[in-house]
Amino acid sequence: MRTGHDLELVHVTKRYGTAVAVADVSHLFVGGSYVCLLGPSGCGKSSTLRMIAGHETVSEGSILLSGMDVSRLPPARRGTAMMFQNYALFPHLSVTDNVAFSLKMKGIAAQERRAKAAAMLELVDMGRYADRLPAQLSGGQQQRVALARALITGPQVLLLDEPLSALDPFLRIRMRAELKRLQRELGISFIHVTHGQDEALALADEIVVMNNARIEQAGPARQVFNAPETEFVARFMGGHNVLALPQGRFAIRCDEIRLDPAGHEAVVQAVEYQGAHVALTARAAGDQEIVALIPEATFFEHPITPGEAVRLGWDEGRLHRLHA
Ligand SMILES: Nc1ncnc2c1ncn2[C@@H]1O[C@H](COP(=O)(O)OP(=O)(O)OP(=O)(O)O)[C@@H](O)[C@H]1O
């Protein structure tokens, strides 16, 4: 559903010399939503984000924000702001001066700059670090400062390039909850580049999966996970088997496969304990590998070891036909 603050890519292509990094991509990013751009290394995610930010020129096509063509505007005049992977804070400036930097460039008076910076630092829970230098902060704290610095410009769209990749796993999960909270509170769009499926599932209202410079599939997180349209999306999102059946190729979630006396014969190759589930990797007729996630309690009623023959079944209705 369109809103007044949508961001729209219309047949956008990015070339570096003869190499095509983004190939004729069109997409509507609905205003006020959290979108994750997901895909393997080199698929064109960062190029897409940098074109939206204005840090990279568009080779062909246009970028519209709130109905206005911003493709040729400088970054500061687009209504977007970008938070970089390495945070890019000025090392010699205090936290407050880093956050207020863009306001200084706009010629806003010192008192107003400080008041706005203080409010932004409160928003990201960094008020008490206002006078420190970046080197005196942890990675997670530097990231909050970088967020405040991006948000102070009042963007309609915040662009985040792998914002969590430099954090340890514990902090990453905390910060992602924080990002989601901020997006909800501010009501603006966040477009977040990641190559982490879990991150995208946890955060996104919409997931846009890119592959080979194109959008392979886009939709609500649950839909992309549960109904992958292509083999690439099924394998990249994980948690699925791709089955070659007489009627065609299908995806089915690994937790939809069960031990079933009436099912297909297979020989167990590996057994992996995963806490809530046990993952059985088995080989069926036609050299087909099938992974079954069996609930832990069910598995341990009759534990299975590699080399054993099992029978695996599923509901036909849970199969999703793959289109490529
Ligand atoms: N400045 C550049 N000059 C030439 N080629 C580039 C440039 N930037 C990116 N590319 C190429 O464009 C393609 C897409 O790169 P991009 O950085 O957009 O991918 P990505 O999906 O963000 O990858 P990653 O997850 O590794 O950051 C890659 O093949 C890359 O080598």
Automatic annotation (TrEMBL):
Is Magnesium one of the keywords?
no
**Keyword Membrane listed:** no
Keywords on record? ATP-binding, Nucleotide-binding, Transport
**Swiss-Prot/TrEMBL GO biological process terms:** quaternary ammonium group transport
**Which InterPro entries does this UniProt record tie to the protein?**
AAA+_ATPase (IPR003593), ABC_SmlMolc_Importer (IPR050093), ABC_transporter-like_ATP-bd (IPR003439), ABC_transporter-like_CS (IPR017871), Mo/tungstate-bd_C_term_dom (IPR008995), P-loop_NTPase (IPR027417), Transp-assoc_OB_typ2 (IPR013611)
* SUPFAM superfamilies tied to this protein: MOP-like, P-loop containing nucleoside triphosphate hydrolases
An example of a Gene Ontology cellular component annotation for this protein is:
ATP-binding cassette (ABC) transporter complex
State which residue ranges cross the membrane. Answer: none
* Top-rank lineage group of the source organism: Bacteria
Pfam families registered for this protein in UniProt: ABC_tran (PF00005), TOBE_2 (PF08402)
Locate the ABC transporter domain: which residues? 7-237
GO molecular-function annotation terms?
ATP binding; ATP hydrolysis activity; transmembrane transporter activity
Classification via PANTHER family: SPERMIDINE/PUTRESCINE IMPORT ATP-BINDING PROTEIN POTA, SPERMIDINE_PUTRESCINE IMPORT ATP-BINDING PROTEIN POTA
Q: What is this protein called?
A: Putative spermidine/putrescine transport system ATP-binding protein
